[in-house]
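Ticket #4471: structure export looks truncated?
Reporter: QA, pipeline team
Priority: medium

Steps to reproduce: submit the single chain below to the structure queue and open the exported record.
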Amino acid sequence: MVDDNELGRLRDLAVPAPDGEAKARAFAAAMQAFDMGEEKSTATQGSARSLRLTERARKLWRDIMQRKLIATPAITALVALPIAGYAAFEMLKEQQPVVSDRAKITETVADKPAVRKLATEQPAIAEPLAAAPAAGKKTDADSERRAADGTQLAPTPAPKAELGRSDDQASQESGTLKDYARQTPEALPAPSPAPARVDQLAAGGSANAQAPAGSAAAIPASPPAMAESRLMVQPAPLPADQMQAQEENRDRIQSFNTNPVHETAQDPVSTFSIDVDTASYSFVRRSLKDGILPDPDTVRVEEMINYFPYDWKGPDSAATRFNPTVTVMPTPWNQGTKLMHVAIKGFDVKPAEQPKANLVFLIDVSGSMDEPDKLPLVKSAFRLLVNKLKPDDTISIVTYAGEAGTALMPTKVAEKRKILDAIDTLQPGGSTAGEAGIREAYKLAQQSFVKDGVNRVMLATDGDFNVGQTDDDDLKKLIEKERGTGVFLSVFGFGHDNLNDQMMQTIAQNGNGTAAYIDTLAEAEKVLVEDASSTLFPIAKDVKIQVEFNPAKVAEYRLVGYETRALNREDFNNDRVDAGEIGSGHSVTAIYEITPKGSGAERIDPLRYGQASVDNGGVANADEYAFVKIRYKLPSEDVSKLITTPVTKGNEVPSFDAAGADQRFSVAVAAFGQKLRDEDQTANFGYDRILEIANAARGADPFGYRAEFLSLVRLASSLGANK
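Actual output as written to the record:
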């Protein structure tokens, strides 16, 4: 037994100083033992250790990448895929971060902050590659743990010295991520295009964007075994056609061809239905303000012209519902032609004389309306209208989604709070049974029908009918049948990227109604408050215009706009043919570009034979340019009335600047619409000239509509639309 005192003495003994000679002898012995070991077997003592499956996969992958096994890229890809998949699975299990028992934490993807990537990045597996540390830095496992924690927001490039190592040097390293990063880019296969990421698509970036040289994304992708993180889910790349579909605009717009030039000798008569719709202007305005040039088929020039209020002279009494004003002036975009400007003003019903209104709000509450510029805007718009109506007017509300339903039975506006509460409770959801809603709305309108009053269904929708009759022709037949009851139909479009403008135009044109597009609350106020009289109170229906041109004075003519409203010549006298509706105080403008005979501006070669048949010498009215006829019906009648106006030299002004301000401004709008449609007639007519004309003819602009038009022209010019 050792004495404690002896142990204490030993503990207190001083350590002897090192002997230099002894150190030299020990070092020599160690070197001798090392030299002897070089001649022995290199096998380690104990059990022989073979490579694990993951190590073998890594080695095989490295050999493939260095082209030691397979030279053909196609075969390389086929062999590499299963190996890479298995290696990825094993390595993800091996490289999980170690968590002590005292600090075990359960984590989910939702708990992790999103790691924002650049649009030019390669697949997620390239980031750990770029972040491979140099010698003496943190290990690769540390890097992956940082990526899993969401803290590795930017990859760290490998040092230049490491990137410059040769293939032979790199092949001596173990098959780790660091070794792969040290290989030169020339020795590696070309990376495949980066898959599309969800945040890239949402931002409109290209899935195949190229990374700049020298960036982390430009380094070839590492083996799939090295996944970005077990908590970061890499979305599969979308096919090109699917990515294109995400960028497609799903608006349904009716396509049409621009009116051609007609030779008067062969086709002297032009017939069309009047149009007071304004949807196109609002749609064009929204596109331009979004920084997008409008689709040419969304540009209906007549709707753009008729969007603005004009101070045309109206009739003196209700006995004559319309007063036409015709002006002939030089064409600003073509020195060899003239413009025949036909302006029509409807009788303005005084507020005290306005008939009672029976209105049915037919509101689309389907799932497609669940956007800020759809149902919420619809509700605000109809609240404005309710506040405009009189206490004796009647309001009903029909909604439709998967099926139609009545949200409010006919209620007098005197119970305003009840009506507004019914509007406020509307919520979106479900499919779109538009046909059922239309039937239910007409049924309610008939239940509270007001004789000698205004009976109207007011449809608010994005037009996405997908339940019941969804074909435009079927809906047209339904509307044609219902309009015989004396109930008119107005359509108000809301939203974009899913707007069925074609369907809206179809049912509005065949329902004795109008169509407007409401994109803002200010536009809702214009349509439903400022223009309420013309929107709600009709003074005539089935209004048609027919113009006969004199071949002795006019060689050619072209109608600007109204392509979707064209009628056959014989339709003018057929009272069974439906046409447009005119509201109280409404103004309508139509513009013809005419080519005087012998002016030298003719676009159609004269006929070699039959020219004598168009000579009109000695015939009455030979000096007239044209003869304008207007046919209409009173809202409660089925027999049309006729108004005629000859166009003579007395309607002509000597210069364009001598025309009235309203005429000149409407011509500027017509030029702008044709420019957006890229029509030949205005190809050489610049936006600067349109601005000059519109600004000079701006006149009184109490609501700022004309000032806004000037800004739209500037926007279109800046977007490079057909300069």
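Status: closed, not a bug. The export was complete when the record was re-opened. Leaving a note from the reviewer for reference: The mean pLDDT is 74.
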